[in-house]
User: What shape does this take?
Amino acid sequence: MAATWYSLIALMLVTYAVLDGFDFGAGILHLVVAKTDAERREVLGAIGPVWDGNEVWLIASAGVLVFAFPRAYAAAFSGLYLPLMMVLWLLVLRGIAIEFRSKVDHPLWRTGFDGMFALASTIMAVVLGIALGNLVRGVPVDETGWFQEDLFTNFRATGHDLGAIDVYTALVGVFAVVALAAHGATYLVWKTSGPVHERSVAAARRLWPIVLAIGAGLTAATAATQPAHFAELTHRPWLWPVPALSIACAMLCPRAIARGEEGRAFVLSCAFIAGLLAATVGTLYPVLLRSTIDPRYTIDAYNAASPRATLVIGLVVWLPAMALAIGYFTYLYRSFRGKVQTEDQHY
Assistant: This one.
């Protein structure tokens, strides 16, 4: 059951990254692809019906984590308290910016909230990338099963005195910003028209090659920083096609955009994000928090899981809940399919 819940939490987090990822990407590019007030309302109209629903997957994932792996939840939320508070406030600021920017018809008011939306989305992407980098690199879990990380220390990716931000995790943060910006640009290509569409096409075609270039450098940095990550990959040949397919999707996405296959391009973008994270989770399993002090102190799916009976009961509840959620999101996305129209714009 521990393996099942590990997979379910991973699935929920991957879903969150794919769905809320294009929201962040749209925010990162908000001031780039939209120049006028009408164009910025068009960008907000593209994500307006879905952005808050997408964030539910993060909340649900945290709830499932505390239920299935309470020890890992307690250690992670204690040791990474400051970054997690940053995530909370960034999500609040994004929501405020989206909901309040059109409440007052004044250029200064709207420009301020547009800037808040873009800044909060960009920093949020960086923080999510840094969090992923910490999971791959490891954290200084000691013999007590706890750890404490400052926001940054000496920027070294090895040793006991690690900070949440170092050279490696910062690189993952940069990659997250570029990848989510490309994902968001592809979504805007699919959902918008006119000048916003044209600028989104240009942004996507420039960003996807950069994603591949930074991704190659990040792969080399991961191999140097955490060799165990790639050692696990060599022992799991069933995982090998996943990163290959992910790379292929990133290469095919700009070609699909150039051919005008906008829906296919967005599907390829989603597959790239999902494949990349699936490969990462597949190599991490069963690790939840890798100890950089001693492998014996690592918190994994087996030593952190709730009792089996609890996990079985939870699965009985989780299955119909997820069926309901999937049905809701299917209805939501079908209801707002097609290009953004003037009457759909988010005021």
Summary: The mean pLDDT is 92. Strands lie at 150-152, 163-165, 287-289, 299-300.
